[in-house]
Each structure stands twice: as structure tokens, then as C-alpha cells.
Amino acid sequence: MNDSAVLNQRLGVQFVQVEGDAAGQRIDNFLSSRLKGVPKSRIYKMIRSGEVRVNKGRVKPTDKLGFGDTVRIPPVILDNKPMTPPSWLLAQIEASILAETEHYYVINKPSGLAVHAGSGIEYGLIEGLCVLKDNPKLSLAHRIDRDTSGLVLVAKNRLSLNAAVEAFKRRQVTKRYQTLHSKALDRSHEVDLRLSRDHEEGGERLVKVDPEGQEALSIFTPLKTIDGFTRCAVDIHTGRTHQIRVHSLALSAPLVGDQKYGVKGVNADFKKRGFKHMFLHSSLLALNPEGFEPLNFKIDVPDNWGKYK
What we know:
Elements: H1 3-7, E1 8-11, E2 14-17, H2 27-34, H3 40-48, E3 53-54, E4 70-73, E5 76-79, H4 87-96, E6 97-100, E7 104-109, H5 125-132, E8 139-140, E9 149-155, H6 158-169, E10 173-181, E11 189-192, E12 195-201, E13 204-209, E14 217-226, E15 229-236, H7 243-250, H8 264-272, E16 280-287, E17 295-298
Parallel strand pairs: 9-16
Antiparallel strand pairs: 1-5, 2-4, 3-4, 6-7, 7-9, 8-9, 10-15, 10-16, 11-14, 12-13, 14-15, 16-17
């Protein structure tokens, strides 16, 4: 038997009945826990293509399972190689741990570090943290973009995760970001524009303003303007994908360093000056998960903002 035969295990179609703690779990998390060694990109592809079925019906990655549901899992190959993120990544994650409580980790994520694996990324924040803390039960309570820096909450177990997720769902969370815009903003702006993720351009999924989309509210408050670029504090009352980035575009003041929605000339100029990141930073996160300790964290923007800090 060769090495690949030892390391890889082929599984046929499985029909799994949901029991115990699996009830109430998101389908993507359920599959990730059962299919160790399968990249998350493959798991999401299985769900979106309809290969995964719940009670014979198609599902979305965020759909939750009920007790007694039957989940169809398509044939997969499990890679049984141990997860070994590179040492530099583990060191970066270790240095990014801002605080640890009995039930949560609070991470000050650097720009460029994905929160989870997928889309060609083998290891992200959560995979590295699970290895670093020798705890496979760690879970992201929410997500921020790979190019966004700042506060991320990680739950240590299912109960603390559910409590945090419920607080986010009920909008019992205070979230504030720091931004740098590609033009001066001389007053506050309340942007109440619905957003849709159904728009694709060049094969890449983007977000656009859509009257039929999900509600999204962002409040931009200018803090200071330097060289015609304004730094803002942004309070968001919803947590839609690319919300601040698309709302900034709607103000005709896209974020500096935003490679999807930004101004190419501005981005190129900043890159020449050594700024290789997007100027979007999660600076405040406060919530009180029911039954768990209250969380209230505030951090400044990183030093790589230079004089725009």
C-alpha cells in the first residue's frame, strides 16, 4: 500500500441523521466537523452545487439543521494528513491574540490574514488557532474580510458560539470601524442602502446597491482629513458582506487600498509609497452574549497606517 493510500480515505455517499448537539448547527459547520481534511472551498462548492441535500432539498451554507433531519453527503476523499500550518503563521496568530476569557478569544487580526481556509487558502486564522491552542472546537463567532484588519471574536465551544451568534443575529452588538477614503468628506453621512450579492463581474462575486437586496445601514463620521483623504469612524447597524466598502463607493469616496471597489490610481500611488493594505479596520466590538461574560474591546488602527493613523 503506497503512502497516498494510507493518507487518503475515499468515502461514498452518506446519509446522516441529525442528532444531539448537531441540531441547530449550520450546515457548513456540520460538514466541516465531519469531513476533516476536506478544504472548506470544496465543502461550500458541494453545498452550492446541490450535492449536499437536507431532507432531499437544496440548502444554503448558513441554513441550520433540525433534530431528525437527514443530510446527504456526496462522495469525498479525506486527506488524513495532520494539519500543520507553517510556523510563521502560528507565530503571527499568537501575536494577534488580544485577550482571552473563559469562553472566548479576541483577536486583533492583521490585514491579509483570512479568517478561514478556502478559495486557494490552505490555512486561515481559525485553522491556525485551533492548532495553536490544541482545541478543534474553536469557532468564528463572525467574519471580516481578509483585507480588513482588527477585532475578531472566536468562541471556545458550541454554547458560547451560539450565544454570540444570537447576539449578532439580534443586532445586540456595537461595531465600529476606522476607514480612509479616497476623497475628502466634510460632514457625517448616514447611508441606508440595501445590498445584494448576486452580481458577478469577470467571474468574481461582487456586491452592489440593490433596492431588492438586504437592508444595510452605515454611519460615517469624519475624524480628520490629510492630503485630501479623510479618515472616518464608521458605525454599522447591519453586517452585510462588503457593506462599508460598497457604501463608501456609493458616497463616491471608496476606501484607499480597496482592490475591488477602489480607485486604481489612488491605490497604485499608495502602493508606491509602501501602503500595501486596505484602509479598513475593525476598532470596536461590544456585546453581551446571554449567559456569558460581557465583551467590550476597542483598539486603535495599526502602525502601517502611517501618518493617516
